[in-house]
Amino acid sequence: MDSLSRAQILIEALPYIREFATKTVVIKYGGHAMARESLRKQFVLDIVLMKYVGISPIIIHGGGPQINHIMERMGIRSTFIDGQRVTDDETMSVVEMVLVGTVNKEIVGLINRHGGMAVGLSGRDGDLIQADPMKIYRYTGDERPPEIIDIGRVGKVVKVNTRVLKALEDSGFIPVIAPVGVGPEGQAYNINADLVAGAIAGELRAKRLILLTDVPGVMGAQGTLIPSIRASEAKRLIEDGSVTGGMIPKIKACLKALRQGVEKAHIVDGRKGHAILLELLTDAGVGTEIVQ
Predict the structure, then answer these.
(1) Which pLDDT score is estimated for 1?
(2) What is the Cα–Cα distance from 99 to 84, expressed in whole angstroms?
């Protein structure tokens, strides 16, 4: 690439940098972007660059593969319902150990080694993520009450203590959050990272919500990427069964954030290098944007 092409890339990014400067961007980090070393470094460099040009990133990370690995070694079976991990007390102990004690610290360390100032948190810190138990309802017919499925210590976000995050942002730190919530009696809850990201973005009225995943984005009926979709259409894709599994909580997280005032939400292919910068700071983007 010649010097003129490099300059044109910077000029293309300029209006986006101006638009997002001083604004909060909430990012859910997970999937292959966490698993592959080259992508981990590119993600971290994206975050550090965002911070240096005046954007305030907040990271909520997953850790499903890491949890699965430890559970397999311990002989504990994983079960999922509608994209949610069924979580008994034993599973909750593993989840908290892996997410808070290992994954979170690794991400924080990597950001700090590359010039950022990151601080690791879980939802228990400062009552950051307050949660209640989540129930899944299955409808069995118009004349019957829904079946209620108990999925254990899986939580839903009921409140976010935004003061903790604002204090860190104002001091120049990058919050890195493990999606473990705290219940009314101080008990830990396993919360889907996408839903945590959506709740935090909504409470902060973030400029953008970005969810990294292992698919190109939201796919249409013909198996092609939908670059942009309205919230009403995204909701219909869940209702008619076009969207299943782990994409359900992702779209629900986006819809919740949009209802609370987030301008746009993005579901982005984290397998692409520098996916966040490409989605935020270029004309084309690399995923699906969801808008009201």
Answers:
(1) 66
(2) 16
Domains and CATH numbers, the chain: 22-291 (3.40.1160.10)
Q: How far is it, in rounded angstroms, from Cα 133 to Cα 114?
A: 38
In our burial notation (b when 16+ CB lie closer than 10 A, e otherwise), range 167-198 reads ebbeeebbbbbbbbbbbeeeebbbbbbbbbbb
Confidence of residue 141 (pLDDT cuts 50, 70, 90): low
**Distance, CA of 267 to CA of 253 (rounded, Å):** 10
**Mean pLDDT estimate for the chain:** 90
Token pair 């300059």 in the structure block, residue:
7
The two counts, helices (H) then strands (E), for the chain are 11, 14
The backbone torsions φ and ψ at residue 272, rounded to the nearest 5 degrees and listed phi first, read: -85, 135
Beta bridge pairs of residue 25: 57, 208
Distance between first and last Cα of the chain: 38
Q: What's the pTM value of the predicted model, to 2 decimals?
A: 0.91
What does the alpha-carbon distance between residue 291 and residue 251 come to, in Å, rounded to a whole number? 11
